[in-house]
Specification:
Blueprint: H1 3-14, H2 25-30, H3 33-63, E1 65-66, E2 74-75, H4 79-85, H5 88-119, H6 126-133, H7 135-138, H8 141-151, H9 158-165, H10 179-206, H11 211-219, H12 224-252, H13 256-261, H14 273-283, H15 287-314
Antiparallel strand pairs: 1-2
Length: 315
């Protein structure tokens, strides 16, 4: 063996083995599963604390102070809540919020279930129809609400024109000028906007039900109603519960639709707790009182969710 070959083999044997690049003790520390998990969780937690936690804590702080815009705050304890207890508009807003949330959620759940059952069948232009159902979700809330303002206009609105042209009425009702009709109108628009959420979610649940269950029920003599009552509906209950819970939370805190459509009027008849809190804080400049209204929404919503959970478990 030549001297050159022996030297090259000796050099190769003495060369250090390849090792992956490490940061030493810091790298080993960060590779721990618990440390890595906290590193991943820390940015979203900081984001939530900054943009959700801080406004919530500041709102709780303001609710115990008499605070007007551009003036120093003075501590009043539960004074704002006592004032709200004696405020008839606040109780009207609470009643409106419960009616608005309850009726709109029932309409969206029943309509969404019917929509999903129809969309689960085979028919022509099924894909186009599904895409069209998502339009209320795609259009921005403010834009669609402005369009509904035109549709519900007492003079030039589409609904009243159809009533007059068809001969059903000589003049249409004032959809947004009458307290009862205004409440019906905001419930109708909210239902129109939230119906696709229920329909698409329940449709996804329908498609996970095994066909064998329906075939077994048919063999046992179950008809269309029997298969729906004892197979389809029980299988969909988990999906319906989750979608209903989300819908209650979203509807309960709804602000844009009502504020743009009626602004809480006429005569405070469509004020929800969210719009009344905004009206007190930004309209009247009473930041402390408005914060107290907003904070009052939390226990009311909590009671609604507990009642819903108790009802479903009992069922």
């Amino acid at each position: 063996m030549s001297k050159v070959l022996e030297a090259s083999r000796a050099g190769a044997l003495s060369a250090p083995a390849h090792r992956p690049f490490r940061f030493g003790r810091l790298g080993a520390f960060m590779e721990r599963e618990s440390v890595f998990s906290w590193l991943m969780l820390t940015p979203p937690m900081l984001f939530l604390l900054a943009f959700l936690g801080y406004p919530f804590i500041y709102g709780v702080y303001l609710s115990f102070f008499h605070k007007e815009v551009a003036r120093a705050a003075s501590f009043v304890g539960f004074g704002n809540f006592v004032k709200l207890y004696n405020d008839p508009i606040f109780w009207q807003a609470v009643r409106n919020t419960i009616i608005f949330t309850g009726v709109a959620t029932i309409l969206k759940a029943s309509g969404g279930l019917a929509m999903a059952l129809v969309m689960n069948q085979s028919f022509k232009m099924k894909s186009v129809t599904r895409a069209a159902l998502l339009l209320p979700f795609i259009v921005p809330t403010v834009l669609s609400t402005v369009a509904w303002q035109w549709i519900l206009d007492p003079g030039m609105g589409l609904f009243n024109r159809l009533l007059v042209v068809s001969g059903l009425a000589t003049t249409g009702p004032s959809w947004l000028g009458n307290p009862t009709m205004a409440m019906i109108s905001i419930i109708m628009v909210n239902t129109w906007r939230g119906l696709p959420f229920f329909g698409i979610s329940i449709l996804a649940g329908l498609q996970t039900i095994p066909v064998d269950l329906h075939e077994s029920a048919t063999i046992d003599g179950a008809g269309t109603w029997g298969r729906f009552r004892y197979v389809t509906l029980p299988s969909l209950m988990p999906v319906i519960l989750i979608v209903t819970t989300f819908s209650i939370v979203i509807t309960f805190f709804d602000f844009q639709l009502v504020y743009v459509l009626t602004g809480g009027g006429p005569a405070n008849s469509t004020h929800l707790m969210a719009t009344y809190a905004y009206s007190l804080s930004m309209g009247a400049g009473q930041m402390g009182l408005g914060s107290a209204v907003a904070l009052s929404m939390v226990p009311v919503l909590g009671l609604l969710l507990v009642a819903l959970t108790f009802f479903v478990r009992k069922d």
